[in-house]
Design brief:
Layout: E1 2-8, E2 11-17, E3 40-42, E4 50-53, E5 58-63, E6 70-71, E7 76-82, E8 85-90, E9 95-100, E10 107-108, E11 113-117
Antiparallel strand pairs: 1-2, 3-4, 4-11, 5-7, 5-10, 6-9, 7-8, 9-11
Length: 118
Amino acid sequence: MKIYRVKVNEKVYEIELESVTEKSGSIVVPKKAKEPSGSQQTHPSTGGNHVLKAPMQGTIIDIKVEPGQSVSRGDVVVVLEAMKLENNIVAPATGVVKDILISKGENVVNQQPLLTID
């Protein structure tokens, strides 16, 4: 068994792996691609607002923000339950919460707008 430290999205994890075979070689790290625009889009009618969309179908368990509240990119803004798991949905951008388009206990579908951040 070997223990490794892995950094993912600025968080460090320790993982333990069993070595089956060892090969020498190098790892090529691809250039960082642009983020997919699935959860972060500019609202067409409001100019520079970011629309946070549901990444999956589920039930809104908690809304952690209120209109007018400042948020930073990566802050948890909504908790969505899907398949008996609670998923933290984070702010796609730094700004101020403009509109909350859902309510606690509401069932949402994939890609349904949840809130806007200006």
